[in-house]
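Minutes, project huddle
Topic: does the predicted pose make sense with heme C bound?
PN asked that the exact inputs be recorded in the minutes so nobody has to dig through chat later. Recorded below.
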Amino acid sequence: MSDTRSRPSCRTRTLIAGAATLLLGGALAAGCRSDARPDVHRPLTLEEQRGQAVFAAQCAQCHYADRRSALHGPGLRGVFRRPYLPSGAPANDDRVRATIEHGRGMMPPFGEALNDQQMRDLLAYLHTL
Ligand code: HEC
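Predicted holo structure (C-alpha cells), as shared on screen:
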C-alpha cells in the first residue's frame, strides 16, 4: 500500500528533474561557444546544419567560412553582413544564388550539383557566417 502511495510523487519528482535537466542543457547550449563562429551565439538550426554539410562538401576546398582571407576564392566570413560581395555586386540571396548556380571566373557552376533544398540550406548557412 505504501508502494502505491509513493508512486505519483515519485513520478512528479522525475518530471521535475527532467524539466530541470532540459532547462540546464538549454542554458549550457546557448552559452556554448566551442565552435569557430564567434559572432553567432546560438546553435545552428537543422536547415543551417544541412547547409554547413553542403558547404563542407562543395565549397570548403576553395573558401574559408571563418575568415575573410582568400583560399582559392574569397573568404566568406560575414558574406551577408556586408553590403557588397567581393566582386562589388550587392550581397543578397539572388546574387549569391546566381553565383553558385552559374559559377564565376575560376569558380565552377553548381546549378546541376545542388537541388533546391540544398541551395536553400546552403544560403541559410551562409547567412550565419
Ligand atoms: C574550385 C574553387 C571554388 C569552389 C569549389 C567554389 N568557389 Fe566560390 N569562388 C571561387 C573563386 C575563384 C571566386 C572568385 C570569382 C571571381 O570573382 O572571379 C569565387 C567567388 C565566390 C563568391 C563571391 C562572388 C562575388 O560576386 O564576389 C561567393 C559568394 C562564392 N564563391 C560562394 C561559393 C559557394 C557557396 C560555393 C559552394 C557551392 C563555392 N563558392 C564553391 C572558387 C570556388
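Observations noted during the meeting:
- The pocket of heme C is lined by residues 58-59, 61-63, 72-74, 76, 79, 85-87, 89, 96, 99-100, 104-108, 110, 122 (CB under 6 Å).
- The radius of gyration is 22 Å.
No decisions taken; revisit at the next huddle.
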